[in-house]
Write a structure and sequence with these properties.
One of its GO terms (molecular function) is short-chain carboxylesterase activity. This protein has about 675 residues and is α+β, with helices and mostly antiparallel strands. The chain is built from 21 helices and 23 strands. Strands 2, 4, 5, 6, 7, 11, 12, 18, 19, 22 and 23 form an 11-stranded mixed β-sheet that branches. A hairpin with a 5-residue loop joins strand 20 (about 485) and strand 21 (about 495). Helix 8 (about 220-230) runs antiparallel to helix 21.
Length: about 675
């Protein structure tokens, strides 16, 4: 018993001695020790590789290439690319995949330039914004609003498909577009539906009531009123009555497996510029869409070569990966917030682009003439505006579930699956995955992925499929993050942009470019796609519209006069020369590819054709500074209003005769 008590006392004394010894250590030493432990934890948690780079003499990591041993793409093209056979060294102060990815999204150091915007209307009514940057814009060192691309131009054309919730203003897209344009290529960024400042297009029936008040009351009042109305110099006010908004409304939203937009845009560009070699670049989700499209259409694609950057490859594996660790969950949450912002884009916003009316129905357009309201021209109109995403998602999906989503999987469950008619989320991921289509790709394809990508895991990379396809070369880098790959002390360059530019340049100068296979069987009738022609400023012969102003490095907005995506809609009258070009130009034909059953309708296509023709005719008639067109409308107004005016005069004269007759009768009496 005494032995146990003495043992307890001795152990207690030992603890006291240890405590006294710890108290003798200065507090500064504790702070330093805590900071060292914290730095080591963060170094491993954020996957830094600075010390690895330091001990390797900052030589960088080699690029690993995976390809078929007999691949003509490797031996004829990639073997001549010095960058792909070199090393990649990350910017020292960004030696972490998470730092690189965050820096790209929040800063990115993008070059400053402006795009030209072209609005492409798909056959289902959806609107796709095509943002152009030509080599001449960079070579001249100034932005020229009147510059257009000739149909016979042979300058290589590159189509860029951005990633999830990204558009042409994203930093990495601007790095890519500027790099390609600097080397003499024309670049067009095909923004996803609902992105790039362009929302879903709404075309509904409307009635426009126009009145002219305070008209001059003299014998020429009626003629002056018409002229005032035509020149928009009088006091006009418009009343829009939205009733019976009809079915010319696109219910199609893009998703990770939606290849139809890429197909129709690429086919349209190939049709517009048949002599220009066409290349395609996809980033992140855009890379998945591009590879899936190339595998679906195989040898029928008009693409000469392609590049896929940081593709997720297998969406099911990616879904499991992004929910695995704490940092991945943060990325998942950030992407979900972006998707929720995409779904919450405003409500109905009107945009009146001149007068676009069909002379088929009746509308109350009138002016005041001696206190009489006389209808001028009976017309029926189509209102061209923008439908926000929120009303559509509220109608087609589970809006409450979308607002409560905490992950991409939740958003896909409440939105994507319901809109795209997928049974489950896993079904959507399996059908949208591009891995099963890799073996079918017949176009020279370079795939670049980082093994430390915090968003798209290396586990989903189809190593065997890429090795089995002779048209594919897979380049994997140990570091780089997601779409970042910053290099240099200042971090002003992206390695994959230089590698892509070099690969496409060597491919273009080689004999290995893909040529579209000519079909022996009769091709299907191509579906007409309408390009919005006006009345925007400086619309060229190929439908390109100039963006006014310059975009600064810190400002991610594209300045243009379309009014789409901006708070205040702007309607700008085109010049006489522009209107003559618009009149002479025919509607642009869309692609001949198949359109999904739920999104295609021949009636809607005809509606777009009629609207385009009416726009050109009336814009030419109204906005040309030509007296003949004004007097032509005056003549139409007189002819259409004369019966009613004649009836009013007859009533007035009959009343006068009755008064004279009654006066004569009373005099006789």
């Amino acid at each position: 018993m005494d032995w146990s008590i003495s043992w307890d006392e001795s152990s207690l004394n030992a603890y006291k001695e240890v405590f006294r010894a710890l108290c003798l250590i200065p507090i500064l030493h504790y702070v330093i020790a805590f900071m060292v432990i914290w730095v080591v934890f963060l170094y491993n948690f954020l996957e830094f590789h600075f010390f690895q780079d330091f001990f390797s003499g900052f030589r960088g990591a080699p690029v690993a290439l995976t390809f078929h041993p007999t691949s003509h793409i490797y031996h004829g093209v990639v073997s001549k690319c010095k960058i792909l056979h070199g090393r990649y060294l990350a910017t020292p102060w960004l030696s972490s995949p998470h730092f690189q990815t965050a820096f790209l999204n929040f800063f990115g150091n993008p070059p400053a330039f402006s795009y030209r915007r072209q609005l492409f209307h798909a056959s289902d009514g959806g609107t796709i914004a095509l943002d152009w940057l030509t080599s001449s814009d960079i070579s001249r060192g100034a932005f020229e609003v009147n510059h257009t691309i000739s149909k016979d131009d042979t300058t290589p054309l590159v189509v860029v498909i951005p990633g999830l919730t990204s558009d042409s203003t994203s930093s990495y897209i601007k790095h890519l577009a500027f790099g390609l344009a600097t080397h003499g290529w024309n670049v067009v960024v095909s923004n996803h539906r609902g992105l790039g400042g362009v929302s879903i297009t709404l075309i509904g029936e409307m009635y426009l009531a126009m009145s002219v008040c305070h008209a001059p009351r003299n014998k020429y009042a009626w003629m002056k009123t018409i002229v005032y109305w035509l020149k928009a110099e009088g006091f006009l006010y418009f009343l829009w009555k939205f009733s019976d908004v009809k079915s010319y409304l696109s219910d199609c939203f893009y998703n990770a497996g939606w290849t139809e937009d890429a197909r129709v845009v690429i086919d349209y560009l190939h049709h517009q510029y048949p002599k220009a070699p066409l290349f395609a670049i996809g980033t992140s989700i855009g890379a998945n869409i591009l590879v899936k499209y190339l595998g679906e259409d195989r040898e029928k694609v008009p693409v000469a070569g392609a590049v896929a950057i940081c593709s997720p490859w297998d969406l099911l594996i990616g879904d499991r990966f992004i929910c695995r660790r704490l940092l991945q969950k943060l990325y998942d949450r950030a992407l979900t917030i972006g998707l929720q912002g995409y779904a919450k884009l405003g409500g109905i916003q009107s945009e009146v682009s001149g007068i676009v009316y069909l002379v088929t129905g009746f509308c109350s357009i009138s002016f005041t003439l001696w206190s009489l309201t006389v209808p001028i021209i009976p017309v029926s109109g189509f209102f061209v505006g923008r439908m926000g995403h929120e009303p559509l998602y509220s109608r087609l999906a589970n809006w409450e579930g979308i607002k409560k989503s905490r992950s991409i999987r939740d958003f896909d469950n409440f939105a994507t699956c319901l809109v795209g008619k997928f049974e489950t989320v896993d079904t959507y991921y399996r059908r949208s995955t591009s891995t099963p289509y890799v073996l079918n790709v017949s176009v020279p394809l370079l795939c670049i992925s980082a093994l430390d990508d915090p968003v798209c895991t290396r586990e989903a990379i189809p190593w065997d499929e890429c090795r089995a396809n002779k048209n594919i070369v897979l380049a994997t880098i140990k570091h780089g993050g997601h779409l970042a790959f910053f290099e240099g002390i200042t971090g002003s360059r992206l390695w994959w942009v230089r590698a892509t530019d070099e690969f496409l340049g060597v491919l273009h100068s080689s004999s290995h470019m893909h040529k579209k296979k000519t079909e022996i069987t009769e091709q299907k009738e191509s579906i007409e796609s309408s390009i919005d022609q006006g009345p925007y400023v400086n619309i060229g012969e190929d439908g390109i519209m100039a963006a006014v102003g310059s975009t600064h490095a810190g400002n991610k907005s594209v300045e243009h006069f379309t009014g789409l995506g901006s708070i205040q809609d702007k309607t700008v009258l085109a010049t006489e020369q522009t209107q003559q070009q618009t009149e002479a130009k025919s509607d642009v034909a869309g692609s001949g590819g198949e359109v999904s059953g739920e999104c295609s309708s021949l009636q809607r296509i005809k509606c777009f054709d009629v609207i385009g023709a009416s726009k050109r005719w009336l814009n030419h008639l109204l906005f040309r500074k030509n007296g003949k067109s004004v007097w032509l409308l005056v003549y139409i107004a007189i002819i259409t209003s004369w019966p009613i005016l004649g009836s009013a005069l007859r009533i007035f004269s009959s009343k006068k005769k009755l008064r004279n007759l009654s006066a004569a009768t009373s005099h006789r009496r």
